[in-house]
Write a sequence for this structure.
């Protein structure tokens, strides 16, 4: 399937969007990814894609909260987003200009709020 055939039914978004969380005006082009739909500052996203990154087929269009990070087999990190509207979970590639501190805060969140008392580690 050619690129033109894949793009034929896709909706076009403007070259920028306003982050629904922090209000930053964000360009949709970004280093390291071809389909930016998240804010490089606070990492929140928009539910614009359905099955394929960049398809712009989602009807939901709700804000997507960054809830974690995932490491892919090649070592690349991906953001885990959960839609505030329909609760769908998506993985999105991080971009080269994403806020490194915000990414690290997401990565250590499970350690900061462990599901058991940390004192129990000494008993093992």
């Amino acid at each position: 399937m050619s690129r033109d055939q894949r793009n034929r039914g896709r909706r076009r978004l403007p070259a920028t969007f306003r982050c629904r969380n922090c209000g930053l005006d964000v360009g949709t082009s970004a280093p390291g990814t071809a389909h930016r739909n998240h804010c490089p500052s606070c990492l929140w996203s928009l539910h614009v894609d359905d099955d394929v990154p960049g398809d712009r087929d989602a009807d939901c269009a709700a804000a997507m909260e960054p809830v974690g990070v995932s490491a892919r087999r090649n070592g690349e990190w991906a953001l885990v987003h959960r839609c505030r509207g329909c609760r769908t979970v998506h993985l999105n590639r991080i971009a080269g200009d994403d806020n490194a501190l915000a990414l690290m805060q997401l990565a250590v969140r499970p350690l900061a709020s462990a599901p058991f008392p940390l004192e129990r580690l000494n008993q093992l």
